[in-house]
Amino acid sequence: MDLTPLKDTPHRRFNPLTGEWVIVSPHRTLRPWQGKVEKSATRDAPHYEPNCYLCPGNARADGAHNPPYSSTFVFDNDFAALLPNPADLSIAEAGLLVAETERGICRVGCFSPRHDLTIPRMCAADLRLVVDMWIDQSNELAGVPWARHVQVFENRGAMMGASNPHPHCQIWATAHLPNQAVREQASFEQYTRKNSSCLLCEYVRIERSLRERVICENDAFVVVVPFWAVWPYETLLLSKRHVGSLADLNTGERDLLADTLKMITTRYDNLFEISFPYSMGFHQRPLRDQAGGDWHLHAHYYPPLLRSATVQKFMVGYEMLASPQRDITPEAAAERLRQLPKVHFLDRS
Ligand SMILES: [Zn+2]
Ligand SMILES: [Zn+2]
Ligand SMILES: [Zn+2]
Question: What does each C-alpha distance from 342 to 97, 334, 337 come to in angstroms?
Answer without folding.
Answer: 52, 14, 10
